[in-house]
Amino acid sequence: MGDDDDPTIRILCRKLILTPKSQQQQASVGIQWLIGSPFFPQFTIISTLRCIHTLPSDPLSPDFTKEADDMRSLLPRGFEVIGALILGGATHLNADACGRDAIDASSRMSKALSRTENRSLVGAVVDPSSGEIRFFVSNSSVVESVTSVVYEDQPEKYVWERGCILNCELPIKLPVYYSVKKNPKDAEDMLTLATESVAAKLRDSKTTYLLETLSESVIIRTKDVNLSAETLSDDTSQESKANSLLCSYFSSENKNRKCCSTENADKIQVTFFLSTSEASLKPVAPIAEYVPGEAKLLIVDYKLKVICYAAKDLRLKDEVLKLIIPALVDQLHTMKDMTLPNLLSQHPKLHPYHFNPPGFLHPITAIYESLYGETEMKQVEIRRSLHLRLGLPLDRPLLRIASALNLSIAKESASGNTSRNGSPMLKDVHIGIPGSGVHGGVVSLVQGSYDYHHYLQDGFDDSGWGCAYRSLQTIVSWFRIQQYTSINVPSHREIQQSLVEIGDKDPSFIGSREWIGAIELSFVLDKLLGVSCKVINVRSGDELPEKCRELAMHFETQGTPIMIGGGVLAYTLLGVDYNETSGDCAFLILDPHYTGSDDLKKVVNGGWCGWKKAVDSKGKHFFLHNKFYNLLLPQRPNMV
Question: Most buried pick, 243, 343, 582, 592, via CB within 10 A?
Answer without folding.
Answer: 592
